[in-house]
Amino acid sequence: MPHRYLTLTARADALSLMKQKFPPPNHIETVLLEHSVGRVTAKPLYACHSVPPGNVAAMDGYAVQSHETVGAGDRRPKTLAQAHRVNTGEVVPGMYDAVIMIEDVWQEDGRIIIRKAAAPGQFIRRAGEDIRAGDLIVPRGHQIRPFDIGALGAYGISNVPVRAVHVGLIPTGSDLVPIGQAPLPGETVESNTCMAGAYLAGMGATSRRYGSVPDDTGRICEAITAAVRENDMVIISAGTSAGTRDFTAAAIATLGEVLVHGIAARPGKPVVIGSVDNKPVLGLPGNPVATQTMLRELVAPLLERWGLSPYQRYERTVRLARTVTSDLGFEEFVPVSVGRVGDRYSAAPHPRGGGVQMAAVRANGYIRIPASGEGFAAGCEIPVSLTVPPGYVDRTLLCIGVRDPAITELADFLAEEGYLLHCCATDTIGALLALQENSCYAAPVMVPKCEPLVRELAGRYCPDANPLRVRIAAREIGIASADGLELSDLASARVAAPLRGTAPRVLLDALLPEHGIDPYSLSIAAEVRSHDSAAAAVSGGVADAGVCSAGAAAAAHLRFVPLGSESYELWFRQEVRDDSGIREILRILGSPGFSSRLCDRWDYQTDRMGEMLPGFRENLSGDAAGAMERSIS
Amino acid sequence: MPHRYLTLTARADALSLMKQKFPPPNHIETVLLEHSVGRVTAKPLYACHSVPPGNVAAMDGYAVQSHETVGAGDRRPKTLAQAHRVNTGEVVPGMYDAVIMIEDVWQEDGRIIIRKAAAPGQFIRRAGEDIRAGDLIVPRGHQIRPFDIGALGAYGISNVPVRAVHVGLIPTGSDLVPIGQAPLPGETVESNTCMAGAYLAGMGATSRRYGSVPDDTGRICEAITAAVRENDMVIISAGTSAGTRDFTAAAIATLGEVLVHGIAARPGKPVVIGSVDNKPVLGLPGNPVATQTMLRELVAPLLERWGLSPYQRYERTVRLARTVTSDLGFEEFVPVSVGRVGDRYSAAPHPRGGGVQMAAVRANGYIRIPASGEGFAAGCEIPVSLTVPPGYVDRTLLCIGVRDPAITELADFLAEEGYLLHCCATDTIGALLALQENSCYAAPVMVPKCEPLVRELAGRYCPDANPLRVRIAAREIGIASADGLELSDLASARVAAPLRGTAPRVLLDALLPEHGIDPYSLSIAAEVRSHDSAAAAVSGGVADAGVCSAGAAAAAHLRFVPLGSESYELWFRQEVRDDSGIREILRILGSPGFSSRLCDRWDYQTDRMGEMLPGFRENLSGDAAGAMERSIS
Q: GO molecular function of the protein, one example (chains A, B) (predicted)?
């Protein structure tokens, strides 16, 4: 018999069930005023005393009796018999009923002279003008803002009763190591509960992380029992699936009731919702993006129902740069990066695997595909929920293309200038198509450093874009082998070759015929995804020769025969030619700081970085065009 | 010679000067990962190790050799010689190159049977799939989000280098008492620096509050000297004006240089910007709203220039409900409340005094009037910066009218249901005009409990609105005196009378003729703004009789002769008749919890609360209309 999942529940139904089963705990805790920002008042707060407590001066000047000032004028200066120097905020003695600004008072030989009458009450702040003792300052349910702190303190509030929800966080898994310890293969750093604690704190909940519990139902039961006693809600991290080491559901069933096991949403499908002692006990999948999604889509709405402050969701309507598909019947959440492209916002998806946590780090938003749909086609206008403040989107430079380390380094330098470069990964052809569709700010491409080959690529995949090209960096490509094999030796060698369509493979296939070798007759021992993999295939004996970078060959202690270079370039559409972002990118690429960063950390050739490369349409006229035409044919 | 301000500087110029004079301190501090949310990375962060560290299973199931699975099919089940049970995240031993999901495996008598072939690499997460050792996680300048915590921890980051700015906060003033101590007249609770600390923390700055310093130049100098040594920036609270006890500018001049004293902005005009040891030393006015404005408009932009994260400003375009004027040459910031009224957003101003801190608490946004303008006319479409998340505005019920305690209590009960009631204070006539202009959700009015008088008010000020009326509560009004004076006695008494146009005055003026007294012949000893003031005028001997509430008379131990009641009502336009907010308001007004809250805390009559009162146009037909017409004439 196959081991199958339990019946899946719709997320909305699971949420309704939770809201119905688990009423607000209505816990109140008192925090010091200075620690109350972001917390939610549990009770209405009333002023303890009036502010100001008595009549005080609203200006620096003199307290006067208004009837004594009657008749004063520019041509009829009047000397006052009674006047009292007061500064802003000082008490106006009871005998005075007005204040004259210091600017309107002349002092001569100790006499106080005015040239303007004062109206009764003028420049006096009456007792209780700001607030009277007993008046409401803020209602219950108010999320305290930094500037509220001043008022609350001024009105006598030094301790604030706030809504409290205590959440117990239990990490499970025999494979867990603590943050700060390097994991061995098969080990995982336990950072999910740390993240959950940080997330819940943002809603005003307090959480307690318990120690990691190994994969053992008895031990998990003990941990749940303790956590349920001490908290309003318990979250168990991992062990929620149907694997042989997934004990979370069984442990909850032992102690209480499993209400839901498995919801029709991704990532996060194998969630467990249970009840122990009438408190919610949730098992969240160990995949970090699944954890995030379920915290946001399942835990947060319950806490909001319990009276805590929701995270705000800022939406933007965007044009989807690439088609995103989804299984019918599954609600799906997909991380995306949003940036301004021309006069609209464009969004490109990141990979969806629950384990690819970097996707969420790189993203600045996410889209939701309802269970009733199969996804969205490229070009659709759809809503995106942002995970950054909305203003950030306007300074985001959305790139779609090859994500090589140099572009993330460029992003670091751009960040210093206030630009946020986001790169959604695809291959060079995908990048060129995105440029053709005008769905990205720039397309990072990895092309052979060979103009005819580049021209052919551009002509085929982005014929309308007539791109501006800027070189980020280049990398030397060649043949790595134990014995120093050359191109002509490859006819009789087992070759570890890069994937078709990648720059080194295009280069290889273009050069082989010069030595009379048909690229299709090559003996491919392995098709590799990276330079390091090609070198590793040679070191491991799988192949005799690998096509890779000089750096990868050197790292694997192999001999290296150069073939050419791959050129990492940013391609832009002509429309953005005068954009400030491009100017900044060119400045950075030409700066010594950037090239030394690339030299220190990566195996790039850093000469002629930031070089403006020739476009295509320009070249089609005159002799240069003719020469190019010939070189391609 | 009058004591005058120094030349005023435009805020933008002051800010430019500061940015130019004070380059970023570039301080870095290291914080624990779990405390890093909201902080800004000072350096790019790179992964310490690859994730996953080795090839692992992406599904629960069996690790297999893909070549062994070739040929398996629904009708050709295949028993595997080699297979290894793996759970999601577990290491796939080197000899296997694919994983088959547990759902697709049949186990019979210990044999592993499959009905589908596995592709090479299937359901295997390759080493480094999420991130490779040395890859960039986040660039410098990245504000850490809660969900980033999980990734940073997973990639080996346990301590985070973040940008640090240390701000010293020095409260000055001999009138200061600490938070939690009740101020006497002339004393002020020192909460400005607590507020400043909370505000600056939100940008990622750390601050240190020093003890309060009395008004003494020498002592202030000592405090500044110590604070400049220990911080990157020093803020002195209060003492910045031109009063006799304002020593801040002098102290800065003694130790360094005063760059600016006085800027052309309100509130916050008397700000001092100085430099001591090449560090910015700012004197902010003691008025709390001035402090807030200068923190937001002067300090925050400098800290942003220094690389800290700005507070996000969310804007909404709104229609201004009331005209807001401003002096030409002064940039002015005005707190407003914004709410949805019909199909657009409406904003009404709160009072602007720098000392009215409640205005900022009550507001959910502010408008900026540029120095080049004299304000905005009612009906203008203008941008508002919100001080709450934008979603809150959609559930804000904007009221313009009389702010009596009952409506703030109503706001507290509504908050429990997710509605945010904001009340911008004006008098009853202002409220009726706002209703006539359809610039508020509801108009709280205080009217005599006398239909003909109410009808006349409505007919004069909101003839087109044909309002729906709901009673919040009523309050008994009468004559307070030592001797039990009655209405007929007022002809020969000195009277403390409420302001013209207020409900008790309208009632008084309507009733006096019945006793042959001409309201204009009354001997008015004082025109008072509140019930308590009327009673106090009698107690203090200023008047023989005061027109006030029964509660105020009782509190002052005076005899009380009732005249009638004032009715506190919410008036709505017919368009909102079916709105969920009105339903909720009616439910609350009719609830025992609300009436007992009013009874316990305030002097309302709470019978017939939430009563739907007759409208006007309906009454114009039939006998009731005739009766009303007669009773008015």
A: molybdopterin molybdotransferase activity
pLDDT-derived band at A66, boundaries 50, 70, 90: confident
Torsion of CA B547, B548, B554, B557, to 10 degrees: -40
For residues B374 and B288, state if they share a domain.
Answer: no
> Which of A196, A349, A386, A352 has its CA nearest to residue A266?
A352
Is residue A102's pLDDT more than 70?
yes
CATH number of the domain enclosing B139: 3.90.105.10
pLDDT for the residue B74? 87
ipTM of the predicted structure? Answer: 0.89
Q: pLDDT-based confidence at B97, cuts 50/70/90?
A: confident
Residues of A in contact with B149 (CB under 8 A): 191, 194-195, 198
Please tell me the least confidently modeled range out of A427-431, B84-88, B334-338.
B84-88
Task: Let me know: does B366 contact B335? Beta carbons within 8 Å.
Answer: yes
Q: Is the pTM of this model over 0.80?
A: yes
**Single residue among B391, B411, B441 that ends a domain in this structure:** B391
List the domain range (segments joined by +) for residue A241: 11-25+165-305
One domain for residues A114 and A151: no
Q: Please answer yes or no on whether B153 and A179 come within 8 Å at the CB atom.
A: yes
CB A198 to CB B137 under 8 A? no
Q: Indicate if the pLDDT at residue A287 is higher than 50.
A: yes
Q: How many domains does chain B have?
A: 5
Burial of A518 (0-12, 13-18, 19+ CB in 10 A): exposed
Instruction: Flag whether A426 is in a domain.
Output: no
Q: Do residue B204 and residue B257 come from a single domain?
A: yes
B299 in the same domain as B358: no
Query: Is A573 within the bounds of a domain?
Result: yes
Provide the pairing of β-strand B381-386 with B365-369: antiparallel
Q: Is there a single domain that holds both residue A267 and residue A286?
A: yes
Question: Are residues B117 and B136 both part of a single domain?
Answer: no
List, as ranges, residues 139-168 from A with C-beta within 8 Å of B.
139-142, 145-156, 158
For residues B383 and B322, state if they share a domain: yes
- CB atoms A136 and B51 under 8 Å: no
Residue B543 covered by a domain:
yes
**Tens digit of pLDDT for each residue in A500-532?**
889 999 999 999 998 899 999 999 988 888 898
Interface of B with A in 227-246 (CB under 8 A): 241-246
Residues 271-310 of A with CB under 8 A from B: 286-288, 291-292
Query: Three-state DSSP class for B576?
Result: helix
Question: CATH number of the domain that B345 lies in?
Answer: 2.40.340.10
CATH of the domain at A582: 3.40.190.10
In a domain, B416, yes or no: no
Cite the DSSP H helix spans in A65-125: 66-69
Model confidence over A191-202: pLDDT tens digits?
999 999 999 999
B110–A contact, CB cutoff 8 A: no
Bridge pairing between strands A176-177 and A78-79: unpaired
Confirm or reject contact between B447 and chain A (CB < 8 A).
no
The model's pLDDT over B247-275, given as tens digits with 9 standing for 90+, comes to: 999 999 999 999 999 999 999 999 999 99
Ordered DSSP codes for A344-355: EEEEEEPP--TT
Residue range B359-382: average pLDDT?
95
CB contact under 8 A, B357 and A154: yes
The share of chain B scoring above pLDDT 70, in percent, equals 95
Closest Cα partner for B140 from A420, A326, A108, A186?
A420
B95, B125, B155 - which closes a domain: B125
Residue A354 pLDDT: 62
Q: What CA–CA distances, in Å, run from B486 to B447, B483, B544, B560?
A: 22, 9, 11, 9
Which residues in chain B (51-70) have CB-CB distances under 8 A to chain A?
Answer: 51-56, 58, 60
- Give me chain B's average pLDDT, please: 91
Cβ contact B245–A87 (<8 Å): yes
Task: Say whether both B214 and B267 belong to one domain.
Answer: yes
